Amino acid sequence: MKTLVVMNEKGGVGKTTIAAHAGWYFAERLSTLVIDLDQQANLSETLGSHAGAVDSVALFAEPTRVPAAGPLTLARSTRMLLGVEGAERGCIETFRDSLAAMADDYAVCVIDTPPALTNRSFAALLAADAVLAPIGINDYSIQGVAELLRAIKGVARHYQRPEPDFLGLLPSLFDRKSRRERALFESLAAELGQLLFPGILAKRDLYARAVSERQPVWDLTGSAAREAAGEIRGVFAHIAARMEIVR
Fold this sequence. Notes:
By secondary structure, the protein is α/β, with parallel strands linked by helices. It has one domain: Rossmann fold. The chain is 38% helix and 13% strand. The protein contains eight helices and six strands. The protein has a six-stranded parallel sheet with strand order 3-2-4-1-5-6, sandwiched between helices. Helix 5 (145-158) links the parallel strand 5 and strand 6. Helix 3 runs parallel beside helix 4 (119-127). It is globular, with a radius of gyration of 17 Å.
């Protein structure tokens, strides 16, 4: 099982849209598990029809498997996840052990994390094969990048495991029509070019509509939907290649 973690300390950068579409994309041909660790549960609302019998909080209590509910299975978020932050740090390793127990059950696992560095975030990093960081093209959403990179290295060092592959900073909700955002993007590329993901997700109402209607954007009709589908599927095709996920 290959595990992709979608992470950014700041909310509102498209994490739910990306995680949901990643689940839909990989589940087209592979058995896919999506784990919602964000107590806001937006991803659980979007993928609710694929919910499995085990909620994500159970993965921290003892090594636990989530039985497949179909090609796509969701381990739902509940408010009980907040209790993980007051638990002993051993819960981080328990989460990793839960995923290890499912290594042969699923081909791909996608984890959506809370917008903060918490026990849940550290657990996701410990279990990760790769990390993707969506960012908005503004001054605030990139401020936590250095802290995120330190967390990736710190978890790997503390638990004596190889660092997961950092896939890059994925500019999302990028308004190409905004002169300010274009200037910020150029500045970002000059400063952090080597950390940027080779692609972007433009600001499109269709992404919000797709998530709201609980279906991938490529199932919507019209030329704008086809353009959005090509854009976001291109992102996942690159991720699949980097992670050596054969579809």
